[in-house]
Design a protein that fits this description.
This protein is an alpha+beta fold. The protein folds into two domains: 362 residues, Beta-lactamase (3-Layer(aba) Sandwich), CATH 3.40.710; 87 residues, Beta Barrel (Lipocalin). 25% of the residues lie in helices and 21% in strands. The protein contains twelve helices and 19 strands. The strands form four sheets. Strands 14-13-12-11-19-18-17-16-15 form a nine-stranded antiparallel β-sheet, covered by helices on one side. Strands 2-1-10-9-8-7 form a six-stranded antiparallel β-sheet, with helices on both faces. The protein has a two-stranded antiparallel ribbon with strand order 3-6. Helix 2 runs antiparallel to helix 11. It is globular and about 70 Å long. It starts with 6 loop residues before the first helix and ends in a 10-residue tail after the last strand.
Length: 465
Amino acid sequence: MRSLLISLILASLELSRLPGPPQPDAVLSARIQRAATFYRGRDGFMGVVAVQRNHHLIYESGYGYANVALKIPFEPGTRFPIGSVSKQFTAAAILLLQQDGKLKTSDSIRLYYQNAPAAWSSITLRNLLTQTAGIPDFDFGRIYRDSPQRPEELLKDVLNKPLEFQPGASFQYTNMNYMLLAIVIERVSGQPFCQFVRDRIFRPLQLKQTGCVWNTHIVRSAHGYHPSSQGPVAFEDNDLGSLAGAGSLYSSAEDLIRWSEALYEGKVLSKASLAEMTTSFLNGYGYGLSIDGEGSQLDMSHNGTVDGFFACLDYLPATRTTVVVLSNLVAEGNQATPGTLALDTELVRLGMEQDPVLPSEGREVQIAEEILRGYAGHYRSDDPNHPVRITLTFRDGRLFIQNDGGAALPLYAESKARFYLRNQETEIVFDANVAGRFEFLSYTPIGGSLFSRISETKSGDVPPK
């Protein structure tokens, strides 16, 4: 599993567009099916897609196989490892213990983990929850080389390392923060982490397909694969117990929908606790949640990956819509997710907007020439460690994008500020508040990059025909 936050992707949805009422269920279902079929056909997406609104299941279907060798199709209750989606369950468990009066999120971690070095004395449970503790992460490769291990063993990797920054001063997503929270839950509750979440969350909500100890011998479990020229190749099972609190859980689309609706409708936590969990801190992160947008564009989300599996879970409060995309096809090293993130992003937009233009449908809207010409220019990435130059030019009524030495490719407009590249899982979104600035979005774990204009294009700067 890796840190695969896509807060920038969803936070940058076009805000200038006036939202309308959600589409009728039949129309929404047909567009969901069209998007999933597109990414299945183009990228080989494999997994389960489910969308529910107002307690009504709009769409649920599987694509490909839960077990390729045996050609076992997906079922409504097929179980997948959910990676870092597990973190929101850990956050809820901490808040339940706070409601019980057994801890406070303002407490120092050293109250519950006495082996913590003195440098950690100012780190609070809230810092761990919001990924602002400054604790470096462990060598993730040990999960696959040396598992199973207790989290305390992996902690030895970081106990003697200096903090990356002062607690609360910055954001750095690490699994270690949530593994420490699992240790806190065990020491405060007197129960193993898995037993506590089972007793306080899984059983009360009747999450019958959700559990802690993953392996493909579990009934109705998906097998994980990576793509190859010969077709999907199976991954070996990995023991995820070492990731307790951070990424060890498994679940199904049905259970994740049930969980989301219960959480956001106040059936898990008190009103005050839910507000604490869903308050955005640095980098749009709450407690185990990426909190993006506002109003009709608000999205409470997280995703996660372990070898062979990728999970996306979004809740859209404005339309009370839950979007679940679970995939069992991920490239080795988790460096590509065939269609998964792009599909999830399209389904979120369908849940938010009345009639969004989606890359999978190949449509575009007409944008005034003066707006398109205004975007033309030479741009440079804002990351000094990975300098990239991109040129945008206007010709024949549309924008073209070209990087150093690359071919000029046409951009297709979804709105006046959002454009996509056909046959690629990439888009660019212009900042409505900062002129000459856009984000290049890659719907893979690589994520997005910000670009700023450094000069206007000259009359001769046109892409080759």
